[in-house]
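Q: Fe-S cluster assembly ATPase SufC, please. Structure only.
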Amino acid sequence: MLEIKDLHASVEGSEILKGITLTINPGEVHAIMGPNGAGKSTLSAVLAGRDGYEVTQGSITFEGRDLLEMEVEERAQAGMLMGFQYPVEIPGVKNIYLLKSALNAQRAARGEDEIPAPEFMKLVKEQLAFMKMDPSFLQRAVNEGFSGGEKKRNEILQMLVLQPKLALLDEIDSGLDIDAMKVVAEGVNSLRSADRAILMVTHYQRLLNHIAPDQVHVLINGRIARSGDRHLAEELEARGYEWVTEEESAA
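A: Structure for Fe-S cluster assembly ATPase SufC:
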């Protein structure tokens, strides 16, 4: 589904990613871990097409298409969705309008008619209940006045409604208490399927207690220094990142 080859990327002239190679197949959940400044969020930003990030070398394909040639909206229409570490507030735009507009834009890109209003309301109310969110959230401006946990639940609500092929979660666990973490994790786990992939960026193994990854990759100084299964995350929790950094330096 996603193939990254020898990816180099810079921000304001400073090279952050220094040769990332990674393949994610349908049905897989991958976690990217690493210390501050390793390039984790830069990788997410490049995949999402955020301005200010310059790819200087390498390639990214999404379902065989050249991702770097696709505009941000084309990536979204093709089935990519980004869950932000710091979700933005959009004053004056109600949650319900954002969800309906985004869903209909996806459907239009697939050549489908707009979703009928009763069907849309049924879908949204079911997912609201699943995320333990009050229906009043639909009439509130997007993320405006939301707590940190409410913003993260809202990110997952969008994913449940839009059903992306590839979900990118950039530190979706930051700022969550235990109860909110469990609800968010349940939402993410409900998205797992044989034809969908999930890429999670996280600092902490605690998220991976609730969302078991198929693969864990440790990013050190803009490169993947080590990959393994979920037990690698447990080892990082116990030993920190220093031993990986030392092995990378020795290599």
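A: Brief note, in case it's useful. The chain has one domain: 2-250.
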